[in-house]
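Following up on my earlier message about coenzyme A. Here are the inputs again, as you asked, copied directly from the submission form:
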Amino acid sequence: MLIDHWPLLGLRLTSPGLELRLPAEEELGELADLAAEGMHGPGSAPFLVSWPGLPPAERARALVQRHWRTRGERSPDDWSLDLAVFANARGVGQQRISGRDYRILREVSTFSWLGLRYQGQGLGTEMRAAVLHLAFAGLGAAEAVSGAFDDNASSLRVSAKLGYESDGIERLAASGRATTTRRLRLPRARWEMSERIPVSVTGLSPCLPLFGLRDGGGS
Ligand SMILES: CC(C)(COP(=O)(O)OP(=O)(O)OC[C@H]1O[C@@H](n2cnc3c(N)ncnc32)[C@H](O)[C@@H]1OP(=O)(O)O)[C@@H](O)C(=O)NCCC(=O)NCCS
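Thanks, got it. Here's what our run produced:
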């Protein structure tokens, strides 16, 4: 069976209101529909990557291709996992977690989006909390990093609520303009001290080699 060769298909994160897992092909189509509907409000441009700024049909296709590419290019030394986020069995967005040279650095980075109609209801906080649980409790991470443009109040607030601390700024050109990204870092000790949303992880053990780890989370 496919899951024997790609055990990430059996990985599930469950929090009080959400389930995070890889989407089936038709569920990926539903996420693409959602992305086409809108990923941010008018007048805002919260993404450093360019595909969310494409016209709706191209944006939807770019999402599908990016999802497949991420699966296809995965290696134990450079991995990303684009989890679909489900609330009441409906796809509401995506939560990405990535690690480069993870077995050495033990550092993950995250990126997420919700369909516009699902934003501002606490889901973004809960889905980030879910992948932080995967990182720290499941994969033995030492640090988690994130970043957002300095005018992205909701993303910055999600990070602050989950205990991230400032890690400086980065200035980059995006879509022909100068932008300032606030970098954020959550060391393991701060995550352990923070008040946490309960999350359960199932199906992780057979996936560990795909994260560059052996059973038990060791390298
Ligand atoms: C970023 C994102 C994933 C957050 O998810 P969300 O479900 O909207 O976030 P939550 O509802 O869990 O939390 C948002 C917090 O920001 C606060 N917030 C939102 N807009 C704000 C503003 N203009 N000023 C101050 N605080 C604001 C909310 O009040 C809430 O904080 P609270 O719980 O203390 O009240 C979602 O908004 C999104 O998809 N945005 C577009 C894509 C994006 O920016 N992705 C990140 C790219 S780096």
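One observation from looking it over: Residues 2-214 form a domain with the Aminopeptidase fold (CATH 3.40.630.30). Hope that helps, and feel free to reply on this thread.
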